[in-house]
Amino acid sequence: MGLGLSKKGNKSLNDPKRFVVNGHTYKIINIVGQGGEATVYQCEDENGYRHAAKVFYFSRFPPQQLRQRVDGFLKEARILRYLSGRSPHFVTLVDYEYKPSENVGYMVMELGTGCLRQHMQGLPLNDQARNMFWRQIVGILKALEDAQIGNSMKK
Known about the structure:
Blueprint: E1 6-8, E2 11-13, E3 18-21, E4 24-34, E5 39-45, E6 50-57, H1 66-84, E7 93-99, E8 104-110, H2 116-120, H3 127-146
Antiparallel strand pairs: 1-2, 3-4, 4-5, 5-6, 6-8, 7-8
């Protein structure tokens, strides 16, 4: 999987199905999704709790883009950490770390069930589901505006 070598204490973890973020070991269970920037895995921590791990493989990009990509990763993590407690509709960021020696960035987050794409396929949404999604979207936009992230909706 290319997760690189990680160390916890004196014990070297040379298992490609494990990775360490800020001293905490996670075991990969399966791939949840993959995009141009990162791969998302379902993983388990040392206590058996399940999380999603978004892993950014910066070696995929040309060296001249590395600084920009790493800065984007760190900015995304800081914003997500800030927003995590501001609305129940934001994913909670558990931890993150960029490891220059591995050229990899890790974001460990709460593991959700399903995805919006799954809910949106098939039949049209009923009124109750549409209202629920609408309230969540408005709550998210309000939290983003309060945090002064993105464009203001006021004109």
